Amino acid sequence: MFKIRKLRCEYLENPIGIGEQKPRFSWVMDSDEKNIFQTSYRIQVSKDNDSFLNPLWDSEVVESDNSVHVEYKGPQLGSRIRYYYRVRISNNKNNESPWSKTNFFETGILDTKEWQAAFISCDATESPEFSSLSPLLRKEFNINEEFVSARVYVTSLGLYELWLNGQRVGEDLLTPGWTNYNKRLQYQTYNVTAILKKGANAVGAMLGNGWYKGHLAGWMEDTKERYGKRTALFLQLHITYSDGSEQVILSDKSWKTIAGPILMSELYLGESYDARLESPGWNNPGFNDTVWVPVYELEVDRGILVAQDGVPVRKIEFISPQKMLKTARGETIIDMGQNMVGWVRFTVRGAKGSHVVLKHAEVLDKDGNFYTENLRFAKQTIEYILKGKGEECFEPHFTYQGFRYVKLEEYPGEPRLEDFTGIVIHSVMKKTGNFECSNDLINQLQRNILWSQKGNFVDIPTDCPQRDERLGWTGDAQIFARTACFNMDTAPFFKKWLRDLKSEQLENGGVPFVIPSINLVMPLIMEDKDICHSSSGWGDAAVICPWTFYLCYGDLRILEDQYDSMKAWVEYIYCQAENGLFWNTGFHFGDWLALDAKEGSFFGATPNDLVATAFYSYSTSILAKTAELLQKNEDAKHYRELHEKIVKTFQREFFTPSGRLAAPTQTAHILVLMFNLVKGKDRKRTIDTLVKYLEENKWHLNTGFLGTPYLCYVLSSNGRTDVAYKLLLQTDYPSWLYQVSKGATTIWEHWDGIKEDGSFWSAEVNSFNHYAYGSIGDWLYRVVAGIDTDETKAGYKHIILKPQPCQKLEWTTAEFESMYGLIKIKWYHENGMMRMDVTVPHNTTASVMLPYAKMDGLMENEETVKNQPLYSKAMEKDAGVEVELGSGTYSFSYPLDIDILPDVPTSITDRSPQES
Ligand code: BGC
Predict the structure, then answer these.
(1) Model confidence at 911, in pLDDT bands (50, 70, 90)?
(2) Is residue 477 part of a domain?
(3) Residue 335 sits in the same domain as residue 299
(4) 310-353 pLDDT per residue, tens
């Protein structure tokens, strides 16, 4: 058996409405054999589903082992056309696969000239009094003949929900998503063939304020109407007849509008809905709309319209609440059992005009009462007024909440737990990773990381999902990106966000703090209101993120697309830095929230110029590698040289002549090691000093946003895996497992969001769903389980399987669904034996490190490797045996004295941190 499984176009199965002119195809192959490599592929693209007799493009047989991101090279693609494609491949065992199943992709509107519709609006919403209500818009139309297909291309200023003949179009939420609306407004494409019918039809839409018009960054002076005052709908419905002719329905003056039952809907505030104001049948044909008023048209440049280039937000999971409780204050609370993001669906019965009022919170305070202070301006309140007709079921429309607890502030009758369901929403991303080990607290930590990822990947990567912030903080995204790529397929999600980043970049290359940018002002920490861009470690997202996605998905185009943006960021720093080498100017968040900060400060003790110059060197080194990959040889040479000079400057500035790093903080030492700013014997001294600091701190970290992600990594790659495990396994403050032992179900913003005595960190900045410190997930996958990619064959074309076990964990297992297929590893030690099972996907190779193995002690598992050469190459190395493998599943076992494995150090000294 040799065949193609999982055929994708631009990461997606059968996407419609794409904007790419040169889409790329990827596939995964299936075979029962081991050591399978693709030797050739052939792709055919046709406009005709049934046959490829006369394909539009036939790549013919191409000798290549390339099976991911293979670019379409046929004639230029037309607008609004469905293209079918199929692939067949051959392998190194002389097998040829059958043709794959036929998949398709369909283009969106590729030519701006095709836009004929107008942006239509309801003027009532302009008055401040009605500014948050959601207008309804409708139109009826006739289809005179049978038709073969229908597509709607739709978007809005603000958010929209769309219906045709009473049926909701698509399942997407919060459309059209958040982009840099001034330059890019995504439209969505839906296949509505099955919803329309010959005869009378009706289209209806409802608009919400969303990011466009609603409150953003609630603490700022002008929190509303950041992009505009008027919400508006833009829609083109193309109905195609069998002879190819079309009927087109447009949003235009012929539509009518009225205020709907939503009295207020805002992302942070929640929603108020008066069911008595519903107009049954309004989105169906035949509805009497004589009291509705005409819409008016808005002037908007249609050049900003772009095809949806990310993934939509949808309802992904449904949670039954765990319990209902009464607090000391007498509040009735529903506990979802999980800090989640989305909303509650409820069914209620009661008299007309009675109210349901739900409030949402992440935590209860130390007395068990409902706690909302950390939400700041975000009210997270749902109000529903009953129409009084039997069972009423409600879900909000243009808002979402971050919560575990729901307070029933008003509720008619006795609430029943079964009437409430938690609806979890996030961007559509397939789960691609799994990590588990013998320690339950670590497993809970991994679950918490995943939940924080879900809750904060809501169209853009946000810092938090609950308070009046929920912004695309660049630093947070940069820190977490690698972990995110393990847990879920984030490629299309981030592709879109990076396009926004690029479009928001300042002319001088500066990068706004948050993307999409809203000219953020942070009075709490900054006096200068004009600064809202280009902090080191944050702006570096422009370089680190594309590089991360290249490593994880082998996606060179992401580097091509972002290259100018990456370069502009490095050039920006060059212009700010002293002699272009030492970045000692400007505002920086630094090692944000580190515990070595002065009392009451958010800024860690590591000097800003050190952090900034360190990240500058890192971004420059990535840029040099990127230029090399893209064969921009001059740039590559230039940035390599620049990088060397930055490193020398750094060393001159921050190391004493005898090789001591002058800044006595954990994070300074971590960054220096991570970014290779120290070489030779000074490296050893640096790692020893870091270990000394940790020991003096009783084996606890005190790092913030920039040091933490790399902490365990620098320890384990510099011979101190033992210390890395020690930090990971700590359960008291400050540590990753402290919050787990306090019952966290998502990652906290602060190491001590809830203190040991149950009190909270200041309500100003205290999110319980902040993925930043979840970046330890990367180390769990890459070091504890040991799944990594070879940078020179990125995207796991060559896999490095190099677990670093320790005595305290009996077993670890991890899986990662790469672009080539499933990578698996499991290691465990028992009864003096070390055992390891690995799976290597087809069309890849892997270097497997069998830790502490000796060649002569190595045993093969007879079942799995029977009659197969076990390895093509094996070498005994210092800490084990390294084996080269082709695809397949393999098991190894060998005698191992558990005492050889690193054990976590015990404190020898008993100095308190203050004394050190
Ligand atoms: C956010 C962050 C962000 C930080 C920058 C906070 O308010 O929640 O996570 O990176 O500000 O300082």
Answers:
(1) very low
(2) no
(3) no
(4) 999 999 999 999 999 999 999 999 999 999 999 999 999 999 99
Q: Is 704 helix (H, G, I), strand (E, B) or coil?
A: coil
Q: Which of 82-96, 470-484, 514-528 has the lowest mean pLDDT?
A: 514-528
Residue 302 in any domain: the answer is yes
Judgement on whether residues 213 and 300 belong to the same structural domain of the protein: yes
In percent, the amount of the chain with pLDDT more than 90 equals 89
Q: Are residues 284 and 143 in the same domain?
A: yes
Q: Is 749 known to be catalytic? A: yes
If you search the block for the tokens 């740039």, which residue do you land on?
Answer: 635
- Tell me the sheet residues that pair with 393: 347
Determine the pLDDT at residue 915.
37
Token digits for 801?
């399987």
Pair of tokens at residue 658: 């005898």
**d(CA 466, ligand 1 centre) in Å:** 13
DSSP letters for 450-485: HHHHHHHEESEE-S-SSSS----BHHHHHHHHHHHH
What six digits make up the tokens of 206?
Answer: 């409802």
Mean pLDDT, to the nearest integer, of 882-911? 84
Residue 465 inside a domain? The answer is no
| Atom 7 of ligand 1, residue of closest alpha carbon | 765
Identify whether 355 is part of a domain. Answer: yes
Ligand 1 center to residue 514 CA distance, Å? 9
- For residue 102, the domain's CATH number is 2.60.40.10
Let me know whether 138 and 223 are in one domain: yes
Measure the CA–CA gap between 462 and 515, rounded to whole angstroms. 9
Q: What is the mean pLDDT of residues 659-669?
A: 97
Helices 633-654/608-629 angle, 10° precision: 160
463 CA from centroid of ligand 1 (Å): 7
Is the CB–ligand 1 distance for residue 463 below 6 Å?
yes
Q: Which helix (H) or strand (E) holds 427?
A: strand 420-427
**Mean pLDDT (whole number) for 725-730:** 98
Candidate of 377, 469, 473, 520 to mutate for ligand 1, largest count of ligand atoms within 8 Å of Cβ: 473
157 and 291 both lie in a single domain = yes
Q: What is the CATH classification number for the domain harbouring 878?
A: 2.60.420.10
Cα gap 390→350, rounded to integer Å: 7
Which amino acid residue places its CA nearest to atom 1 of ligand 1? 463
Q: What's the domain count of the chain?
A: 4
Same structural domain for residues 324 and 210?
no
Q: pTM for this structure? A: 0.97
Q: Is residue 298 located within the same domain as residue 381? A: no
Strands 381-385 and 293-294: unpaired
pLDDT of residue 916 exceeding 50: no
- Among 52, 72, 107, the domain-final residue is 107
What CA dihedral angle connects 274, 280, 286 and 290, to 10 degrees?
Answer: -30
> How high is the pLDDT of residue 408?
98
Are residues 322 and 299 part of one domain? no
Structure tokens at 765: 């900045």
- Supply the CATH number for residue 420's domain: 2.60.120.260
Catalytic residue of the set 106, 140, 161, 469: 469
Boundaries of domain holding 236: 115-264+278-310
User: 268, 374, 377, 463: which to mutate for ligand 1, most atoms within 8 A of CB?
Assistant: 463
DSSP secondary structure of 179-217: --TTT-EEEEEEE-TTT--SEEEEEEEEEE-HHHHS--S
The DSSP call for residue 780 is I
Q: At which of 46, 80, 107 does a domain end?
A: 107
Answer yes or no: is pLDDT of 523 > 60: yes
Question: What is the maximum alpha-carbon separation in the chain?
Answer: 89
CA–centroid distance, 847 to ligand 1, in Å, is 39
Active site residue 63: no
pLDDT value, residue 907: 64
| pLDDT per position as a tens digit, 575-607 | 999 999 999 999 999 999 999 999 888 999 999
